[in-house]
């Protein structure tokens, strides 16, 4: 089916397509979650089907696992893989140090486990995800359901002691019930506006007993492939800074914009 993509979807698509160029035969690849990562999974599926690419994928959520199987990618568990060559995932925000906020789709725990078990993490994002300072996007924190309101209060007290702007830790809902992650936990979204010291906040949050993990990815991402609504792509590398034209151009014959959106 041919569909005209919105500029935002086009940006996500071109970023995903370029990032797929990093995937090589024989690799074990972490597959992210979300609308941008879904483009990547579909692209890798095409490469498996049309080009004979041989990879094993470790999904970061049940929905990514379903999509990966649907498009013909061999899916294995992280324990079977043991270690990954590369993880490619989306993000909700990235800053100039390539630190991230993730978890808008509730998959942050598996995403962080998979990304930190990889030689390299590449993030794919539309330019709208780039920020000067992290925090405009509510920071997801995964907490165990047992005693979650006590955990919520302890988080809010920690935010006050850190003098972090905005202190509301809101339980994420799915209709009338709490949103439940793939690991059976809840998500508290921290409305902070601006995170001055993301490293410190990440450490403080993870010291609270009911907190399983937080959505700050500090020093984990190596490269961001940024997509623009006009089809341009830029590469940001943690070691090299901004790098342009580092990747091969998409072949003329590629029908870039005929896929369906997520
Ligand atoms: O839990 C979800 C993930 O962290 C996503 O990678 C993140 O929310 C970005 O999603 P999207 O590509 O849909 O904006």
Number of helical runs? 7
- Top-tier CATH class of the largest domain: Alpha Beta
Total count of strands: 17
Shape: globular
Report helical residue fraction: 25-40%
Summed up, the domain count is 2
Which residues form runs of ≥5 with pLDDT under 50? 245-262
Task: Explain this structure.
It is a single chain. This protein has 262 residues and is an alpha/beta fold. It folds into 2 domains: 149 residues, Rossmann fold; 77 residues, ACT domain (Alpha-Beta Plaits, 2-Layer Sandwich). The chain contains 7 helices and 17 strands. Strands 3-2-1-4-7-15-16-17 form an 8-stranded mixed β-sheet, with helices on both faces. Strand 2, helix 3 and strand 3 form a beta-alpha-beta unit. The longest helix has 17 residues. The two termini are 13 Å apart. The C terminus is likely disordered. Ribose-5-phosphate binds next to helix 2 and helix 5. The site of ribose-5-phosphate has 18 residues, from helix 2 and helix 5. InterPro entries: NagB/RpiA_transferase-like, Ribose-5P_isomerase, Ribose5P_isomerase_typA_subgr, Ribose5P_isomerase_type_A. Catalyzes the reversible conversion of ribose-5-phosphate to ribulose 5-phosphate. It catalyses: aldehydo-D-ribose 5-phosphate = D-ribulose 5-phosphate.
């Amino acid at each position: 089916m041919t569909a005209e993509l919105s500029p935002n979807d086009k940006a996500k698509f071109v970023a995903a397509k370029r990032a797929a160029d990093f995937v090589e035969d024989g690799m074990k690849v972490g597959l992210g979650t979300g609308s941008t990562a879904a483009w990547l999974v579909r692209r890798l599926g095409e490469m498996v089907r049309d080009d004979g690419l041989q990879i094993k994928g470790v999904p970061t959520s049940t929905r990514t696992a379903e999509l990966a199987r649907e498009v013909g990618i061999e899916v294995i568990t992280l324990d079977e893989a043991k270690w990954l060559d590369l993880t490619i995932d989306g993000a909700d925000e990235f800053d100039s140090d390539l630190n991230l906020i993730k978890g808008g789709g509730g998959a942050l725990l598996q995403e962080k486990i998979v990304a930190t078990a990889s030689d390299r993490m590449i993030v794919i994002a539309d330019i709208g995800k780039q920020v000067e300072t992290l925090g405009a996007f509510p920071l997801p924190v995964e907490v165990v359901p047992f005693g979650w309101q006590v955990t919520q209060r302890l988080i809010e007290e920690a935010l006050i002691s850190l003098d972090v702007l905005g202190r509301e830790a809101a339980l994420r809902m799915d209709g009338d019930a709490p949103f439940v992650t793939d690991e059976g936990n809840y998500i508290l979204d921290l409305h902070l506006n601006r995170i001055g010291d993301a490293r410190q906040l990440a450490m403080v949050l993870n010291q609270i007993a009911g907190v399983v993990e937080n959505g700050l990815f500090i020093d984990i991402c190596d490269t961001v492939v940024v997509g623009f609504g006009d089809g341009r792509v830029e590469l940001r590398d943690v070691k090299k800074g901004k790098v342009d034209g580092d990747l091969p151009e998409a072949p003329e014959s590629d029908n870039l914009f005929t896929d369906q959106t997520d």
